[in-house]
Amino acid sequence: MGFAVRVLLQFVRRHSTLEKIRNIGIIAHIDAGKTTTTERMLYYAGKTNRIGNVDHGDTITDFLPQERSRGITIQSAAISFDWRNRGKINLIDTPGHADFSFEVIRALKVLDGCVTIFDAVAGVEAQTEKVWKMSQKIPKICFINKMDREGAGFSRTVKEIIMKLNTRVALVNIPYFSLDPQTKEQTFEGVIDVINKKLIKWNMDDPDSVNVVDIDPIKDSTLYNQLFKARESLIETLSEFDDNLVEIFLEDANGDYLELSSSVINKTLRNLTLNNDIAPILCGASFKNIGVQPLLDAVVDYLPSPIETRLPDINKKDYVMKFDHSKGLMINNNGSMSVSLAFKVITDPIRGLMVFVRVYSGTLKNGYNVFNTTTKRPFKIGKLVRMNADVPEEINHLNTGEIGVLTGSSINGNVSTGDTIISHSIKKDGLKSFKKNEELTLKINPIDVPEPVFTVTVEPKSLGNKDSMEKALKRLVIEDPSLRVTVDEETGQTLLSGMGELHLEIAGDKLVNTLGAQVELGKVTVSYKEIINETTSVEDYSDEIGYKFSISLEPLDSSVNDISNKSNNETWYPLGSDNNYLIMEKSHKYDLEREWLLQLTYDSIVNSIISSSIVAFQKGGKISNFPLHSCAVRVNGNWEVPLDVEKPNEILVITRNMITKSLNKLATSQYSMLQPIMSLNVDVKPSDMGVVVRDLTSDHDAVILSIDDRDSTEKSEDNLFFNKIAEKQYVPDDVTLNLMKTSNVNESSKHVKAEAPLRKMISYNKKLRSLTQGRGDFQMYFEKMERVTPDHLKEIVDDL
């Protein structure tokens, strides 16, 4: 075989492989059926020979003891499988509980597409709305699950998806019910495939039984009529976006909705899904093994490959990014550079630290030297593996678009969640070929850690347990950066902060039962912060050996969401997740763009000041020593450092003392306390609304923002367009839709939106269930940090 032929074959295989990869996530509200659906996907793909059950605690992706005992997903799990030789699917099953939103946040950074699962009885729920917004730029497929349940409403849920999620939809299939002639009861048995014009039926007693039949227009006139209306609606919707489809419809199909080719419809629907213009909708009942195979077909048919996805975010505005059909993502036309994002870190009892990565460009290989652009440190990769939930499979390399895991002793302490890793795709020691001030500072798809709002104290049972406690806490935070460990400088207590009560409960359980830490956990309390009210500074600080710094501290009134529009003469660096920043003004003496005069690199100087700032801010303010929030450390551009200094330790000490000195200049009255304010979504029956609202406003200091009918159409300006679309959208007739149209508005569920201080919402779930006899439901999310008023300050301080 000639060289040219071999090169051509390699190109074809590489291109084919890239086109077949699907990196997808399963997202939804808790209990919508994410893990149940994932288990069926694995079974039908031949990855497993049995179907795991959440209630039995034997699922593949929920493998943690806490997940199996509680029946909920706590951490995202990755697994890879092939589907009918049509596509290789890398799937991440994410948690649905709001306390574990960070698991969803970091998974979304590496996904090209999503499957959003809806409970057909509950419809569009609060957490579904949240994760939909979080994944706004990612193409999605909708799967309406639990169609076998009493009260399931496919059509109502479709209309809610349009109205509440503001999206256009395409019905790929619609539900099929059999009618018992004696009892007149309907049983969900399958789906009508709108695109391929087939009826697909499953036998619930045999998961491997599936029957695909044609729909006879005479014998099955009702089904045929539904198929025609659904296909007509689908083609009309697609035609609004694609003029070429209109031409084919008129010329090749002679204007007949049933004659238009399935391949033409699929091609158009794929393009519109990739552009985020439309979300395909399918339905099923995963627990009864209905509708999963068509969902897998839809993943391959409509969701993007790594060369069709959106370009990632990078910190280099002048870099050119494009997709190459043979090499995948190309950054600055550098075909030899491999770029990966570390999005998750776990600790395996046998392999030690394991780092999940998504390769965006080039190839990552076993044993290669790589460079962490976040820590500015090189290290060597050990073995690469591909995870099947908790079972590793060793591989030799990871190509563009693939998700895998780094292992080896050298990664310990060298990689964290959110780090960018670069290497040479061809040369094992090819790092020297990269330009020092360009590729080695590249950062891709930054991961923002949300604000922790709950705190517990962690104390060793004895002094001898302290070291093991600190090691266990360190491992806990490495695996879950949304947890934060701090030490109260005044009391010496170790504090563990997290996203919610359940989050901390799970973390404590893991700390004691998995990591074996001999500790005592205190009660859950609120994470308060402090803020300075005015600017303070230390001017022209110099010492005898040639250091010079002018530092000022400034309050930031609101969250800094965009630092790209700041002055060109200053650079902003985040200091952890408390909305604190280091502002480095452009140096008057040292020119980064020309000859650099110092032994120390600019990055090492900045990193030292970042470290000193974080330490000083963690010591807290003067009210109750809570960590500082929304503050900036500004370093004037007239700073000087001795030319021959090689280590930055002295810079760290000097700047930390300066920041502490500046803070001490402020009186206690010049500090304010901040408390977390939460956004609430409460769903209750009309008969319970009065007592719930009174309780919120009187006992929980809540501010009611709105009270809506849960199942009614909102008439706000923003939603008016999609409300009209929902009214026109064809959906098959179902009982819940009729009830939605004809029922008295006062009988529908009420949806209360409110804001309340977190300190008043601890254990609210128990209170709500008591007030509503278990009928109420609520979701709570962090909204903002807000200054505590003087009349509440004493109450909070006295309770501490």
Automatic annotation (TrEMBL):
Domain spans labelled Tr-type G: 19-307
Family annotation (PROSITE patterns): G_TR_1, G_TR_2
Major localization listed first in the record, in broad terms = mitochondrion
Name a Pfam family for this protein: GTP_EFTU
List this protein's GO terms for biological process: mitochondrial translation; ribosome disassembly
Which GO MF term does the entry hold, naming one? translation elongation factor activity
Q: Which GO terms describe its cellular component?
A: mitochondrion
Instruction: Please name the SMART domains in this protein's record.
Output: EFG_C (SM00838)
> Can you say where in the cell this protein is located?
Mitochondrion
Record-annotated residues binding GTP? Answer: 28-35, 93-97, 145-148
What keywords tag this UniProt record? Elongation factor, GTP-binding, Mitochondrion, Nucleotide-binding, Protein biosynthesis
What does this protein do, in the record's words?
Answer: Mitochondrial GTPase that mediates the disassembly of ribosomes from messenger RNA at the termination of mitochondrial protein biosynthesis. Not involved in the GTP-dependent ribosomal translocation step during translation elongation.
Assigned protein family: Belongs to the TRAFAC class translation factor GTPase superfamily. Classic translation factor GTPase family. EF-G/EF-2 subfamily.
Q: Could you identify this protein by its name?
A: Ribosome-releasing factor 2, mitochondrial
Whose protein is this, by species?
Maudiozyma barnettii
What lineage does the source organism belong to?
Eukaryota, Fungi, Dikarya, Ascomycota, Saccharomycotina
Which gene codes for it? MEF2
